[in-house]
Amino acid sequence: MSTTSPAEEIRAALGELLPRLRRFARVITRNVPDADDLVQVAVEKALARAAQWRPGTRLDNWMFGIMKNAWIDEIRARRRRERVHAPEEAGFAVGDASAAARDIALSVQAAMERLPEEQRMAVALVLVEGFSYRDAAEALNIPVGTLTSRLARGREALATELGDDGGSP
Amino acid sequence: MKFTDETLMAYADGELDAALRIDIEAEMAKDPEVARVVERHRTLAARLRWAYDGVLEEPVPARLASLVETRAPVAALPARRPTSSGSMRPAAWYALAASIAVAVLLGLMLARGPAGPYEETRDGLVARGLLERGLDTQLASAPASGAVHVGTSFRRRDGAYCRTFTFDQQDAGLACRGAENWRIEALAIAAVPDGEVRTAASMPAEVLRAVDAAIEGEPLDAAAEIAARDAGWRNSRNVAE
To answer: Looking at CB atoms within 10 Å, which of A8, B76, B179, B189 has the fewest?
Structure first.
């Protein structure tokens, strides 16, 4: 028999997912240290609960759901400690983009940061991660109708802020 | 405007079925305002992706990478499919994982009742009804119509023919032809709920892994597929290599 355990299998798959987990965490936490802390917490939770993952379902979906819950727990804990976290700086460096490209990326990130938590998560999963509505709703554990209305509201706010049609009214 | 903004948003996100897509495209051709709304949704989506894609290029911090370090080189999913017998161990594992996936999904599938596309038999889960007919007759090159769409056909190491499929746009799986039945070797929830034509590359990872574990050589080309179909998908090879 093979010595590979399910936990080992999940570990391997998670290794491949790490860049995407970090990206999603960056979108929802809005800063680098919190984002990587969140990935760490979520990965540890996932490994501890490896047995709960249903093989045949998508691991990324499951992980994003764990991250969402972990982040909501974290926000609640911070509020309890009356230490609501405000990101020190808006946005973060983007790869080795040129200065102009970087400005645009930062303005997009800044606009995202002003969205309410729930809209930001919907936008993050569908527009950044490319999830289908159904998968995103499943990861967030909400009905598809709720997902689409959050997505629509989030998008509208972003478009208004970013002037996405090139400035025309 | 004939369509709500939310419908146009869903169109831009590739969430609509073919009929509605055609309607919207006709409307876009007639009404520049509709085209502009769709374009705006797409532009915003592209800007968002781009704004965060840089994260994917960053090196993963060691403290995170070390969490998921594995003992065995199983770590990376096979980018190339295993070719030597030395790499059979991960392949065997994927086959096992696939059969677990089938077991877990079985309850769900059987809930569809006796007329459904799957039946649990002594040979394991096999295709029935529309799915069986689709696997018997449909070519991978055929346009997606009806409930069944066949992705790739190939031969397994023992010579049996195998085909990836989607059913009802909900399930994605791998079926291999036994003496009497199409046996379901892997089954997962299809990733995309709309009617877009799927390629092998958009199959869920579980199914792709089962394909990687089973496939011998390259997928069948159109001519080989027709020949195999016309021969009733019989395994003409008696001895496994």
So the answer is: B179
DSSP, residue by residue, A99-151: HHHHHHHHHHHHHHHTS-HHHHHHHIIIIIS---HHHHHHHHTS-HHHHHHHH
Beta strands in B122-215 (DSSP E): 124-127, 148-155, 161-167, 171-177, 182-189
Say if B66 is an interface residue toward chain A (CB within 8 Å).
no
Domains of chain A: 1-88 (1.10.1740.10), 94-169 (1.10.10.10)
A140 neighbors A125 (Cβ within 8 angstroms): yes
B2–A contact, CB cutoff 8 A: no
Q: What is the pLDDT of residues B8-28, one digit of tens each?
A: 999 999 999 999 999 999 999
Residue pair A139/A128 in contact (Cβ under 8 Å)? The answer is: no
- The reported pTM is 0.53
How far apart, in whole angstroms, are the C-alpha atoms of residue A105 and residue A113?
Answer: 12
**ipTM confidence:** 0.78
**Averaged pLDDT, A45-52:** 87
Q: With an 8 Å Cβ cutoff, are A55 and B100 in contact?
A: yes
Residues of chain B contacting residue A43, judged by C-beta atoms under 8 Å apart: 64, 67-68
Amino acid identity of residue A63, one-letter, is: M
Q: Which residues of B touch A8 (CB under 8 A)?
A: 70-72, 74
> What is residue B95's predicted lDDT score, i.e. its pLDDT?
55
Chain A window 20-79: which residues touch B at a Cβ cutoff of 8 Å? 20, 22-23, 26-27, 36, 39-40, 43-44, 47, 54-59
B162 contacts B155 by C-beta, under 8 angstroms: yes
Alpha-carbon B213 to chain mean position: 15
Of residues A16 and B193, the one with the higher pLDDT is A16
Percent of chain A with pLDDT over 70: 80
Contact B74 A20 (CB under 8 A): no
Which of B15, B67, B168 has the highest number of chain A CBs within 10 A, making it the mutation to test binding with A?
A: B67
Query: Which three-class secondary structure state does DSSP give residue A88?
Result: coil
Nearest in space to B163 (alpha carbons), one of B83, B108, B233: B233
Question: CA nearest B45 in A: which residue?
Answer: A127
User: Which residues 182-201 of chain B have a CB within 8 Å of chain A?
Assistant: 187-189, 191-194
Tell which residue, A135, A110, A114, A112, has the closest CA to residue A124: A112
